[in-house]
Input
Amino acid sequence: STKAQSSLTIGLIPADGIGKEVIPAARQVLEALPSDLMPAKIQFEDLDAGFELFQKTGTALPEETIQALKGHCDGALFGAVSSPSHKVAGYSSPIVGLRKKLDLYANVRPVLSAAGAKTASGKTRPIDMLIIRENTECLYIKDEELLTDKDGHKYAVAKRKITEFASKRAGQMAFTMALQRDAMRREVTLGERIWKHKPKVTIVHKSNVLSITDGLWRETVREVYESNSEFVKSVDIEEQLVDSMVYRMFREPEAFDVIVAPNMYGDIISDGAAALVGSLGLVPSANVGENFAVGEPVHGSAPDIAGKNIANPIAAIRSAAMLLENKGYNAAASAVYRAADKVLASGKYLTPDLGGNAKTTEVTEAVCREL
Ligand code: ATP
Ligand code: MG
Output
């Protein structure tokens, strides 16, 4: 996170499908923030990217977009990209490109219960955890090989890379965010605090099996903790093997605060966690690097409902709040989270994915009125 400045420039990249509906919704909410909550003036810049753009122009992530983001934007909001069902020559996903170009090395996913939403189990449970997924390595280096042994039998091998460098910065981010969340809960005592304890970071690994790779991950994250006296004083740590992590997360999600995991485990845990709170249309994320963050709803471009004004805008609105939080505007971020919660809790403005019949624009306007 960075210190709040007096003006903030946000690049808006709606990209494809419902991205074109939920990103304008998020913008409208940011524009509705009163100045006592949001001291900085927000400037928006519309930027192009996406599969539809690729089909029109042959490029999915134009150089101008990258230059604008690197040059004068403080952060960005990304909608969604359509994934073509078959491999298209020359096309690669623009969000994956952005993560690389801007070195957004962690994917941060808050999993937050909402009073008005039904969960997978039908019950509403108080959940407020933050999953930090390392975003650059592990099995995602995609170093795979299909081979044949001397008897002609096929076998396949995948390499998994864990570096001290990436583990260190993921760890650093986890402890820093644990403190930041705690400060935000204290500073802005809005609503009921779900996590009432000392900040806690849970390190996920499987070093009983992968003692070298996960061993390096676990030791490096622990070292980050032990070498910082503020972390040691103000944050608790625990470890969970990834399998028991999943088991415990479903049994007692309220037992977790911040969770930090290597890429592949983080991917699996965070989709599982999204199921605990209901619709995909509720779950935000942020891609975070040293000086830059890109808010991005977890859902895709949802071609089945695109252009009908029925997409749930809450995930995008919450992603905008994450961006504010990352930039140090805690009061504004909290207000947006709370306004979204109130609209959900009232049950009056729910999109079809949550069993209602409200339009995207009606939900957005309701959130703006709450602000
Ligand atoms: P993509 O290839 O872009 O991921 P997809 O077809 O997988 O597209 P997703 O966006 O991943 O679509 O959505 C999966 C399902 O969840 C779809 O049926 C979609 O309509 C629904 N969905 C996703 N996001 C939302 C939302 N914001 N509001 C309502 N429904 C949503
Ligand atoms: Mg999808």
